[in-house]
Design brief:
The protein has 167 residues and is of the alpha+beta class. It has helices at residues 15-26, 30-40, 93-107, 119-122, 129-132, and strands at 5-9, 44-52, 55-69, 72-84, 112-116, 135-136, 144-148, 156-159. Helix 1 (15-26) packs antiparallel against helix 2 (30-40). The longest helix has 15 residues, at 93-107. The structure holds coenzyme A. Coenzyme A (COA) binds at residues 25-26, 81-84, 89-95, 117-118, 120-121.
Length: 167
C-alpha cells in the first residue's frame, strides 16, 4: 500500500478529479459519463476517492440496484465503475477502495453487491458468478458476480439505475 494514501467519501469539489481518473483508467468517456449521470440522478449509494498528496488517484462508485424477487423489490448495490490512474495501478489502491467501501456498505445495512468484471480480480473480494447465476439480467454472463453479506435473494430480475441504459 502506498504511504500517505487517504480514502474518503467523494465531495462536490472532487468531481473534476474523479472524471479525469475515470477517463485515464478506461481511455474513453463512457465510464466518466456513467459516473456523472449516476450522481446527477441521485442513484449513487457510495462513492469513495483515494488521494495522494491531495491528488485523486482512484475512485469507486456503488449505485442503487433492485432485485425484483418473489418477495418484492429488494435493494442491492452495483459496483461500477472502479478506476485507478494508470501510473498508480498494481499498488493495492483498487483493493483498498473495494475493501473500505464494502465495510461501509455492510455497516449501512446493505446485503448484496453485484459487479460485472474480471472474475480473477473481483473473486479476491468474495464476488462469485455462482452467487449471481440465478439472476435474470441483460448482463448475465460469467463476468456477472455477486457478494452477499446476509439474507439476500439469489433469483429475480436485476434492475440497474437508468444511467446504465445509456452505456
Ligand atoms: C482494475 C483496477 C481498478 C485495479 O486497481 P489496482 O489498484 O491496479 O489493483 P490492485 O493493486 O488492488 O490489485 C492488483 C492486482 O489486480 C490484478 N488486476 C488488475 N487489473 C486487472 C484486470 N483487469 N483483470 C484481472 N486482474 C487485474 C493485477 O494483476 C494484480 O494482481 P496480483 O495481486 O495477483 O499481482 C485498475 O487496474 C484500473 O483502473 N484498470 C482500468 C479500469 C478497469 O478495468 N476497471 C475495472 C472495471 S471491471
Amino acid at each position: 500500500m502506498i504511504r500517505g494514501l487517504v480514502i474518503h467519501p467523494a465531495e462536490p469539489p472532487d468531481r473534476a478529479g474523479i472524471r479525469e481518473v475515470e477517463l485515464q483508467a478506461f481511455g474513453q468517456p463512457a465510464e466518466a459519463d456513467l459516473v456523472d449521470a449516476l450522481v446527477a440522478n441521485g442513484d449513487a449509494v457510495l462513492e469513495l476517492v483515494a488521494t495522494l498528496e491531495g491528488e485523486i488517484i482512484g475512485h469507486i462508485l456503488f449505485s442503487r440496484l433492485f432485485v425484483e424477487a418473489d418477495e418484492g423489490r429488494v435493494p442491492a448495490v452495483a459496483l461500477a465503475p472502479l478506476a485507478v490512474r494508470p501510473k498508480r495501478q498494481d499498488s493495492g489502491i483498487g483493493s483498498a477502495l473495494v475493501e473500505q467501501a464494502h465495510a461501509l456498505l455492510r455497516e449501512a445495512g446493505e446485503r448484496l453487491s453485484v459487479v460485472l468484471g474480471e472474475p480473477s480480480y473481483y473473486g479476491r473480494f468474495g464476488y462469485a458468478h455462482e452467487r449471481a447465476a440465478g439472476f435474470a439480467s441483460d448482463y448475465q454472463c460469467e463476468a456477472l458476480q455477486a457478494l452477499a453479506w446476509g439474507e439476500a435473494p439469489a433469483t429475480g430480475r436485476l434492475v440497474y439505475a437508468p444511467a446504465f441504459s445509456g452505456l
